[in-house]
Amino acid sequence: MLYLAVVALTMFILPIGSVTAEHVFYAGEPLLWLAGKWFVFWGVGVRLTLAGARQVMQPEFTAREIFHMESSEALPLVRELGIANLATGVVGILSLRAPSFVLPVAISAGIFYGIAGFRHIAERGRSGNETVAMVSDLWIFAVLAAFVCAFVRAAN
Asked: 13, 33, 47, 88: which has the highest count of C-beta atoms within 10 A?
């Protein structure tokens, strides 16, 4: 239940709320930029930092609940994934102070989330947590891909 709450907050509620609040109260930046900025901060930065920290400290959750692995042999790999998620997440968080990070983080995280989401589709007998991971991965992939495409188009 906590997993679903964290995913819902970081992938939907907080980024949409942040975009809306900044657009309404500080109408200085284009809506496209605000969407990229806040989805990168919450959906990549905060989400992957939290996931990475949990994967490093508690790799069993990801191994068992997401990847259906019962053996402890996979735990070092899950920890490595956690380190990569933590690294990407920290750069996503820093993008709030370094706006030049937004586009590169959106590109790299979009690739990661897209491949992860499509990989989840192929899984038979998905657990509830894996379904949450699949839906949220595909959602943030779509948001980040739309942002990157719109940003690149607007720059030309």
From this structure: 47
How far apart are the C-alpha atoms of 111 and 51, rounded to whole Å?
Answer: 17
Indicate the domain borders of the chain: 2-155
What's the number of CA atoms in the CB half-sphere (13 Å) around residue 113? 30
Residues 6+ apart with CB under 8 A from 65: 3, 127, 129, 130
138: its two tokens: 């595909």
Backbone angles phi, psi at 90, to 5 degrees: -65, -40
Tell me, what's the pLDDT at 1? 79
Retrieve residue 95's tokens: 């993008």
The one-character DSSP state at 94 is H
- Check whether 2 has a pLDDT greater than 90: no
Q: Tell me, what's the pLDDT at 156?
A: 80
DSSP 13-75: IHHHHHHHHHHHH-TTS-HHHHHHHHHIIIIIIIHHHHHHHHHHH-HHHIIIIIT---SGGGH
What is the b/e burial string over 53-69, where b = at least 16 CB atoms within 10 angstroms of the residue's CB? Answer: ebbbeebbebbbbbbeb
